[in-house]
Amino acid sequence: MKILVPVKRVVDYNVKVRVKADGSGVDIANVKMSMNPFDEIAVEEAVRLKEAGVATEVVAVSCGVTACQETLRAAMAIGADRGILVETDVELQPLAVAKLLKAVCDKEQPDLVIAGKQAIDDDANQTGQMLSALMGWPQATFASKVALADGKAQVTREIDGGLETLSVKLPAVVTTDLRLNEPRYATLPNIMKAKKKPLDTVKPADLGVDVAPRLTTLKVSEPPKRSAGERVADVAQLVDKLKNVAKVI
Amino acid sequence: MSNYSAPIRDMQFVMRELAGLDEVAQLPGNEEVSPDLVDAILEEADKFASGVLAPLNWTGDQEGAKWNDGAVTTAPGWKDAYKQFAESGWTALAGDTNYGGQGLPKLLSTAVMEMWKSANMAFSLCPMLTTGAIEALLLRGTDEQKEMYLPKMISGEWTGTMNLTEPQAGSDLAAVRTKAEPQGDGTYKIFGQKIFITYGDHDMTDNIIHLVLARLPDAPEGVKGISLFVVPKFMVNADGSLGARNDVHCVSIEHKLGIHASPTCVLAFGDKGGAIGTLVGEPNRGLEYMFIMMNEARFAVGMEGLALSERAYQHALQYAKDRVQGTDAGVRGGPKVNILHHADVRRLLMNMKSKTEAMRALAYVVGAAFDKAHNHPDESVRAQNQAFVDLMIPVVKGWCTENSIDVTSDGVQVHGGMGFIEETGAAQHFRDSRITTIYEGTTAIQANDLIGRKIARENGVTIAGVVKMMRAVEAELAGAGDAALGAIAKSLGAGVSAVEEAVAYILATYSQDIKAASVGSVPFLKLLGIVAGGWQMGRAALIAKRKLEAGEGEASFYKTKIVTARFYADHVLAQASGLAYTIVNGAAGALELSEEQF
User: Fold this and answer.
1) For residue B1, is pLDDT > 70?
2) Cα–chain-centroid distance for residue A3?
3) pLDDT tens profile B13-69
4) Chain centroid to CA B484
5) Whose CB among A145, A176, B206, B588 lies 3.0–4.6 Å from A156's, allowing a Cys bridge?
6) B19, B107 contact by CB (below 8 A)
7) How many structural domains is chain A composed of?
8) B411 vs B419: CA distance, rounded Å
9) Considering only alpha carbons, which residue of chain A is nearest residue B81?
């Protein structure tokens, strides 16, 4: 069984990003970049399936600038067998990434795609779902447990108010939630081996995909500063404020 | 507690631009070392250091290692962290490839070592001592000893210790009394007591391999009568499995000012009939073997000075950004500001930052020289680098550790009253740093080595070559046509003159009046450290300026580097002439009083 794992290079989760002065976006010049944490969970899950003898090959795919190679190497250091970089300097939106991944899936014919549920930079939470639609494959999003058997994936997903377990036929798209697993620290020998694993580079044009952005960012701004709290005299006043001032109940 | 995040950008800058990573990568045996491999290793080591080791630093300090009924229990979390550390392959980073190591260059292992030591110095001592024991076995062990111990020590499955000190034999190892009695079957029975044995016992691995200095029955008195033995905690069977418990036992651990989580053991050998050991190398040459490894060990302790300074700086900087107190000086009724606005807090932080960066630059340059001294194809280049390493080891050891006491103290000061409160965590760095100027040879031992073996004995040849390189950097800075670089040139020039003056005094005095020369030895070690640090900061400023002019890379990093170098020149390098004065004039006052007058 072949598993394909898309990985995105994003601003490291420890970095406190700043909005550019002109409001056109977030300043990412010279900030630390690393693999999207949800994608790391996806790689870990795929590698565990391989280690358990369920999967035979794990392929990591990244779409974006040349530096995404580092992200692919990081995935290979965790245990992915090889990497594919779809290289472009164009700003990629979820639909474009989904189309690129579809083209890669058509070529690679994986039995399962495990993707992060969303990327921590744009928080779009769309790519996995779009890919499933484009491929005509079933999807099971926000997975907190994945079990594969008899050509099916049993996926426990975190939903409002509890857990839901789905059974989807493979090939399918599964997206990972935070509690699926805890990614390992890459070992030194594996970091060194990752340098020798194959990494292919293709261009969007080679895949016949038009990646031009369909959405326009109008403005990016810092969240408003939280205003000072207010002390209430009793529960009745609290309820009144929540109803009439905050309008939350 | 405080977080740690490795200063990867500065590490990369120093490795690539100052220490010559490219050149190191081209040395035979380093074929696999590429810039992206180095980056990937630094990133992953940072993850491990900040994610696993750093969070245990404070709890380790508070809980400490515990001794009970002959056995040491490490602080909570230690055992798991060590297991993960070994399984991740970090113990094997620089290890010999013949025994399962990765054989990566010293320059890289230096940067990674800095991270372990910044994140958790008490933890880092265990792999560090193991490395020393591995070195000794590699250098002088028999093939059988190497096969038996090295693979498991390099993989981290077992750890190692160095047993030198005894109650009456501290800096003076000639006084070692531990005995080794030949059994006639190639083994020896060891009897005696060793103190200050770092990780002499612990619960993290199944076996511990002790290297022990002891005397054979017919050994001559003094330094030429000490042999080196390997004594495992559990005997090792021919098939590699563990056999009987050996007669070496931890009878207590010390209560210390710092590094509480590192068990400092009193080890009793032979209380129950004799601890079985085998000889390493030839009889009576143990101390000589120790000296071969001394450079590595002293360098590693020097790195502790750098690493603790970095950690203390990160801690203090975070606090200064968060702590709001008072208004900006000269602003009446202005808003309350964080203390980073206050001039003296800035001075303290810049002191910490600039010294830390200067130490990193010098230490990594020496790390790269280790690589070249060992692996360069050209013999004369090897010799030249070895001479540089030999000269600079006491400086890296002595200067970085002395600095760390000042820097971690400044870190406490930035915190104000909160710095004096243990829960803040700043005090731990200060306490932990205090051992570094003492163990592995006190600063005075380093300074004696520096003025004696490294300068007087060779009539100042190597130091003269270094001074020449410093002058070249001074000239380049002066000719750069830049105000900041010009100021650095001026300060560096005065510093180099101070070194020349002090060296001339030492060369003239050493053979005539060794005590007079020795009074100035620690000030000289500090002087050379300060000026060598300034030399590297000067180089850094020149490179930063070139990068800015070429529009390469991130401008803010390079601008910051120039400002930091400038601060170092004005505040730290400027102390050089005062030190030279003390070196040349300081003997009289120090030596004149009779014992009764004290």
Assistant:
1) no
2) 15
3) 999 999 999 999 999 999 889 999 999 999 999 999 999 999 999 999 999 999 999
4) 31
5) A145
6) yes
7) 1
8) 8
9) A185
Q: Do the Cβ atoms of B595 and B533 come closer than 8 Å?
A: no
Look at B37 and A192 and tell me if their CB atoms are within 8 Å.
yes
Please state, in angstroms and rounded to a whole number, the distance separating the CA atoms of residues B281 and B278. 10
Count Cα neighbours of A239 within 13 Å in the Cβ-side half-sphere.
3
Question: Hey, what amino acid is at A247?
Answer: K
Taking CB atoms and an 8 Å limit, are A195 and B32 in contact across chains?
yes
**The tokens of B528 are what?**
């050379």
In a domain, A95, yes or no: yes
Task: Write the pLDDT tens digit of every residue in A160-218.
Answer: 889 999 999 999 999 999 999 999 999 999 999 999 999 999 999 999 999 999 999 99
| pLDDT at A151 > cutoff 60 | yes
Prediction pTM value: 0.93
Query: For residues A51 and A45, what is the distance between their CA atoms, to the nearest angstrom?
Result: 10
Closest CA to A113 of A127, A124, A123: A127
Boundaries of domain holding A171: 2-244
Distance separating alpha carbons of residues B598 and B594, to the nearest angstrom: 7
- Residue A56 contacts residue A50 (beta carbons within 8 Å): yes
pLDDT > 90? residue A31: no
Q: What is the pLDDT of residues B109-146, one digit of tens each?
A: 999 999 999 999 999 999 999 999 999 999 999 999 99
Q: DSSP per residue over B71-101, as a string? A: EEEPPTTHHHHHHHHHHTTGGGTTS-GGGT-
Give yes or no for B556 touching A (CB within 8 A). Answer: yes
What CATH number is associated with residue A75?
A: 3.40.50.620
pLDDT of res. A224: 87
Q: Considering only CB atoms, which residues of chain A are within 8 Å of chain B? A: 14, 29-30, 32, 34, 69-70, 73-74, 77, 185-192, 194-195
Is the torsion defined by CA of A219, A225, A226, A228 positive or negative?
negative
Answer yes or no: is the ipTM higher than 0.95: no
Give a yes or no: residue A157 inside a domain. yes
- The DSSP letter of residue B166 is B
Q: What is the amino acid identity at position B369?
A: A
Residues 6+ apart with CB under 8 A from B201: B71, B72, B208, B233, B249, B250, B263, B265, B267
Q: Do B90 and A30 touch (CB under 8 A)?
A: no
Residue B162 corresponds to which tokens in the numbers above?
A: 């160095």
Give B295's pLDDT tier (boundaries 50, 70, 90).
confident
R_g over Cα of chain A: 21
Q: Calculate mean pLDDT across residues B485-493.
A: 98
Q: Which of B429, B424, B414, B447 is nearest to B527 (CA)?
A: B447
Q: How large is the average pLDDT for residues B208-220?
A: 96
Contact: A192, B87; criterion CB under 8 Å? no
- Whether residue B212 is predicted with pLDDT greater than 80 in this model: the reply is yes
Find chain B residues with C-beta within 8 A of A71's C-beta: none
Q: Residue B2: its pLDDT value, please?
A: 67
Confidence of residue B279 (pLDDT cuts 50, 70, 90): very high
CA-nearest of B199, B204, B187, B205 to B270 is B187
Residue A249: inside a domain: no
Q: Are strands A172-176 and B179-182 parallel, antiparallel or unpaired?
A: unpaired
B338, B320 Cβ separation under 8 angstroms: yes
The 10 Å CB-count burial string (b at 16+, else e) for B514-539 is eebbbbbbbbbbbbbbbbbbbbbbbb
The CA-atom distances, in angstroms, between B472 and each of A99, B269, B295, B478, B479 are: 58, 55, 28, 10, 11
- The model's confidence at residue B564, banded by pLDDT at 50, 70 and 90, is very high
User: Does residue A209 fall inside a structural domain?
Assistant: yes
Please tell me whether the peptide bond between A6 and the residue prior to it is cis, using omega within 30 degrees of 0: no
* Percent of chain B residues past pLDDT 70, beyond the cut: 100
Q: Could you say which DSSP state residue B275 is in?
A: E
Averaged pLDDT of chain B: 96
